[in-house]
Each structure stands twice: as C-alpha cells, then as structure tokens.
Write a structure and sequence with these properties.
This protein is 33% helix and 12% strand. The protein has a 3-stranded antiparallel β-sheet. Strand 2 and strand 3 form a beta hairpin. The radius of gyration is 27 Å and the shape is elongated. It starts with 7 loop residues before the first helix and ends in a 32-residue tail after the last helix.
Length: 161
C-alpha cells in the first residue's frame, strides 16, 4: 500500500492517539519512537512545520531543556530537537498550559495501523511478545511451607513408669 494515500488529518489523529496513550503507558518507548519517526518523515515531506522551541514541563535531571514544537494539520506535538533547531528556530518560552489539541476518537490499534503503514514499519509479532496467560509471581526467596504436608514418624518415647 502507498503511504501517500493516507490523508494528513488521519495521520495527525493517529499521532495524537499514540501520544495520548504513550503518556500513560507502562512502557511507552515504542509509542514515542513511532510518533517521532512519523513526524520526522512528515517534516522531510514538508507536510509538517517546525513552529519553535518550548521549555519542557519535565526537566531532565533537574536541568531545564527544550522540546521542538511541530504542527501537523491542526495538531501540535513535541519531539526532541536537533542542534540545528536551536540555531534556526525561535524559542517560544514556557508551554501554554491552556492550549489543547482537538479531541479525537481513534483506537490505539487503529492509530498504530495508520502509522505503521505510513512509516512502512513491520511490528515484530506483537502477539508473541504479549503473554496470553499471566506468569505466576514467584520470589527467589520463597520457600514453600511444609506445614501439614510432612509425614511425621512418631518419636520413640523413653518414658519408663
């Protein structure tokens, strides 16, 4: 399938959905990776615009750092900036907390399909990486109790009356 056939609005909604899920996911690395790859490709194809730099709301190791604000259709996203961005783009200061992207309804699985098709990425058998049954927790310190399981041999009594 040709990734050019995906409307820009559909891609923007998919990125929005992936970004929203990544913020609450226990392991968001993959979601952030596909978001960044999609935006980089859109920038290369001139379908997205670099707006400027923002101070991050989440400083790394107590150091203030900046993120790159990118506009895709009617949505705005942040990705890590490159060195060149600091030279070429205006710094917009603090993030406007009142601004929100348009709300959208798209499932995470649908969003992933759209993004995977666009960046031509093949997932490595997600069904295998997701266990069907939960593995039972076992501690390395766990010693099974033998209470009630041991067959005791009666002790010899040495009582002499």
């Amino acid at each position: 399938m040709d990734n050019k056939s995906i409307p820009l609005g559909e891609l923007a909604k998919a990125i929005y959905t992936i970004n929203r899920h990544a913020k609450t996911a226990p392991e968001p690395q993959h979601l952030y990776f596909i978001k960044k790859e999609t935006i980089k490709r859109l920038l290369k194809e001139k379908q997205a615009i670099k707006v400027g730099l923002h101070f991050s709301d989440h400083p790394k190791f107590s150091n203030q750092h900046s993120t790159l604000l990118v506009k895709v259709d009617n949505y705005y996203f942040h990705i890590p900036p490159e060195k060149q961005d600091f030279k070429e783009l205006e710094h917009l200061g603090k993030l406007d907390q009142d601004f929100r992207n348009p709300r959208t309804k798209m499932s995470l699985s649908q969003a992933k399909k759209v993004i995977y098709r666009y960046i031509d990425w093949k997932p490595k058998n997600e069904s295998k990486s997701r266990p069907t049954r939960r593995k039972q927790y076992t501690s390395s310190y766990y010693t099974p109790s033998s209470l009630g399981k041991m067959e005791r041999t009666p002790k010899k009594t040495y009582r002499h009356f």
